[in-house]
Amino acid sequence: MLSMFFFLLALWAYGRYARGGGTGRYVSVVLLFAAGLMSKAQILTLPCVLLLWDYWPLGRMSAAPSNVAGVCTPRSFSCLVKEKVPLFLLAAAFSVITVVAQRKESAIRTLSEYPLSARLGNAIVSYVRYIAHTFWPVRLAPIYPHTGAPPASQVAGAAVLLALVTAVVIWRRDLRYLLVGWFWFVGTLVPVIGIVQTGEQAMADRYAYIPMIGLFVLLVWGFAAAIEGKQISKALVAVPTALVLVTLGVLTYRQLSHWHDGETLWRYTLSVTERNYLAHDNLAMVLNGEGRPDEAISEFLASEQFHQYPPDQLLKIGLYEQRNGHFQGAIEEYQKVSGSTADPKLRASAWSQTGSAYVQMGNYDQARKSYESGLQQNPNDASALVGSAMLAERDGNFSQAVTRLNQAMKVEPSDVGFLLLADALRHTSRFQEAQAAEDLAQKISSNLEQARKNAADTQIFFGYKAS
Question: If you ran DSSP here, which 8-state letter would residue 109 be given?
C-alpha cells in the first residue's frame, strides 16, 4: 500500500512535469519513485508505465523521429526513453538490491524446485486468474500455494485468451486507452508473476493492486466510448455503476468477516483452496498459540501430505510433537530427517532426539542405540554424548559416562554438564577431578543452585538418581 501511494504520487508529479517541464518537477518524480522503491520494489516498472502515459493520455509520443544524426526529437520514443534514464537506473539498482536481499534470506527458489516450464505455465494461468479475481472477486484467499506446472489444457486456454486480447488492443490501437490499459496490466505484473520465483505462492491478490488500474482504465474509458453520442441519460448510466459499487461493498464486507481471527481465516482459506499446505501450517501455529496441541499436530501432519518439507523443518515438527507427548509421531518425523538429509550434523541431531523420545517412552535399549547412531554420524554431538552418558550411568557404567561427559564438555561446556561430570567422577573415586569439574561449574554458572536442580532433573529424566 505504501509503495502504491508513492507510485500514484509519482504519476501525478510526472503529469505536472509533462505539462509544464522544469528540473524541480522532474526531481520530484525521481524522489517519489525512490521512496516507492524503498517501500517495496514491486513498482520497478514505473518508467515503462510513464512511457505508456506519454502515449496516452498525455499525448507526448506523437512526432516522428528526427532524420538528423544525434538530434533527439522531443516527442520521439527514443527521446522519451532517454528522458527516463535516471528512473531506469534507479529501477536497475533496486532490482539488484532486492535479488541480493532475497537470496540472503533464501527466498528465491531454484530451477530444481520450480522448473522454468512450471514458472511459465503458472504465469500464463495466473494472468487470467488475476483478471477473474478483478471482475468476480469471490473465493479470495491470503495464500495460493504453488503446486507446480498447471495442466496443459489450462495453460493453452489461458494463452489463447491473452493472445486474443493482445491482438484486439493492437488492432484497435486508435483507441489508445485499450492498449495502455492492457499493457499496464500485463507489464506491471511482470516483477511478481513468478518468472523469478520468490516464496511459495503461485500468485497473491495484493500483487494486483497496481496492475488492476490498467484493467479499470480499459473498462471505464471503453464504457464511456461505447455510450458516447447516444441518447442515454446520466441517471440510467448511474444505475449499473451503483449496482457495481453496492455489490463490491457487500463482497468486501463478507470478505472482511473471514479475517475475524486466525482460526477463522485459515479454515476459510482451506475451504476455498486445494492442497494448501501453507494454510494448514498457519492454522497449526494458531491452534498451538491457543493451547490446542493435538489439533495443531493434526494440521502439521495434513500439511506434510501436500508439501515436502526440508529436513530442518521436519526436525522442528518432531520437536513440537515430542514436547506435547506425541512420542511415536516425533520418532517418525526424526526418522524422515535421518533418511532424507546428507548433513551428518542434522542426522546426528535427529538420532539424538530419537533417543530422547525413546527415553520418555521408557524404551532405554532403543534410546541407547539411537544415541550411538547419532555419534556415528557426528562424534561431537553434545546431546548424544550426554544422553549416552546418562544411560551408561543408569547401567552402572560410570567410566563410560565420564568419557562421554568429558568429551561433551569439550564440545559444549555448561554448568549442568560439569555438575553431571562431577557426579560421575565421584562414582569412579576420582574425587580431585570431581572437585575440579564442580569448580568449573561454579565459575561459569550464573545460578549454581538452579544448575544443580537442572542436573538432578536430567538424571531423573534418564531414569537415574544420584546416590
Answer: P
Instruction: Classify residue 208 as exposed, middle or buried by CB count within 10 Å of its CB (0-12, 13-18, 19+).
Output: buried
In terms of DSSP H, where are the helices of 308-467? 311-323, 327-340, 344-361, 364-377, 382-394, 398-411, 415-427, 431-444, 448-461
Q: Which candidate, 141, 118, 148, places its Cα nearest to that of 280?
A: 141
DSSP state of 201: E
Cβ–Cβ < 8 Å for 65, 77: yes
- Torsion, Cα 119 124 130 135, to 10 degrees, reads -160
Please give the Cα distance from 338 to 342 (Å, whole number): 8
Go through 258-295 and write b for each residue having 16 or more CB atoms within 10 A of its CB, e for each that does not: beeeebebbebbbeebeebbbbbbbbbebbbeeeebeb
pLDDT level of residue 131 (50, 70, 90 thresholds): very high
pTM to 2 decimal places: 0.83
What is the arithmetic mean of pLDDT over 342-358?
96
Domain boundaries, the chain: 1-107, 109-252, 381-467
Closest to 355 in 3D by CA, of 339, 372, 376, 377: 372
CA distances from 350 to 46, 66, 328 (A): 49, 71, 14
What is the secondary structure of 326-341 as a DSSP string? -HHHHHHHHHHHHHH-
E strand or H helix at 253, and its extent? helix 234-257
Tens of pLDDT, residue by residue over 300-345, are 999 999 988 989 999 999 999 999 999 999 999 999 999 999 999 9
For the chain, the residue count is 467
- Answer for the pair 171, 158: CB distance below 8 angstroms, yes or no: no
d(CA 380, CA 408): 7
* Beta partners for residue 204, in sequence order: none
Which residue matches cell numbers 530442518?
Answer: 312
- Rounded to 10°, the helix 152-171/176-188 angle is 140
**pLDDT tens string 362-402:** 999 999 999 999 999 999 999 999 999 999 999 999 999 99
> Which CATH number is correct for 381-467, 2.60.120, 3.30.70, 1.10.4030, 1.25.40?
1.25.40
Q: pLDDT at residue 287 above 60?
A: yes
Number of H-type helices and E-type strands within the chain: 22, 2
Asked if the peptide bond before residue 57 counts as cis, ω within 30 degrees of 0, the response is yes
| Average of per-residue pLDDT values in the chain | 92
Residue 108: pLDDT band by 50, 70, 90 thresholds?
confident
